[in-house]
Structures are given as C-alpha cells and as structure tokens.
Amino acid sequence: MLGTTLKSASQIVRRTRITQPNRSIQLDQTAKQYVHIHYKQVYRMASQAKRVFKLEMDLAKSDYASGHWATAIHHLERAHIVGQRYFWAHLSTHLWMLRIAFLRQDLSEGIGQFTRILAVVPGYIFGWVPVGNTGGTNASPIKPMPIPQDLESCFVRYSLRRQIMWRLVVVALLLLVAWRC
Predict the structure, then answer these.
(1) Which terminus of the chain faces fewer neighbouring Cβ atoms within 10 Å, N or C?
(2) Which residues of the chain have pLDDT under 70?
C-alpha cells in the first residue's frame, strides 16, 4: 500500500508540472503531505506492534525470573501473537517457550516448541503465519485463532495475502539469481 501511495503521489506531481506549471509548487506540498500522512500511519502500526511485543516479552522475562512460569507463558503467547510476522521476534518467543518447557520438565511442550522453531524459517520465507495463534503446544501450529481485542490494533493494516505474495516474489528473485550464477 505504501509503494502505491508513493507512486501515485509522484505521478500526481509529475502530471501537474507538465500540465499546470504555475500550480506545481502547491501540489508538490499536497503530495508530500499525502505521502507523509500515509507513511506515518504505516510506521506507527509497526512501532506499536514492536512496543506491545517488547512489553509482553519484558513481562514474560520478569515472570520467568521470579519463577511464575504460567504467567510467563501467558505473556509469551501474547508476544507470539504480535511478533509472529517478524522473524527474530517469532523465533525468540519459541526459544523462550522452549526454555520454560525444559524448566518445567514438560517433554511434549519441549518437542512441540522444537518443531515450531524448525518451522519458523519456512513460515517466514513463505509469509504464512496463522494469525492470532498463541504458539503453544495446546494449539494447532497451523490454526488461525481470534486475536484478543487489546492486540487488534497491531493488525489493522495486516494482509496475509500481501505477505505471501511479497515473499513469493522475493523467493522467486533469489532463485533466479541463484540459477544465473
């Protein structure tokens, strides 16, 4: 969406300079404001998701340090919901869940987290993440789940289709480059 906004705004500026040279300065300012507003909205959503992720991870680490593993898992699940679209955030939530599974001596949770850690890379490459999934072994790793209301604001501009298409284009380009070499 941001790319099309930038492209359309620059097209408006170019067309105006050609057809109406006296009004180009005014439209340049309008186009810049238009682009800035849309960029700011997209950037804010990303920073909001990062803030929520960091808060949930900090709460989980604090609970982990004080031995409250059940509440630490709760915060890790919430961090997973927000961070699963980002590689390092997704990976770190599963690593922390694996750490807690070892401390609790929960073999099934440990195996489940280990397999989910292996699935992080292909899931990220192909852009498919089950939105709302908590990441624990008590939920299917491929099943989307409802997003808690207080976390919905982090997903306002999220589009699974756009994520998959973008990543497929990147993978295709990488394969093309590898094939040419």
Answers:
(1) C
(2) 1-46, 160
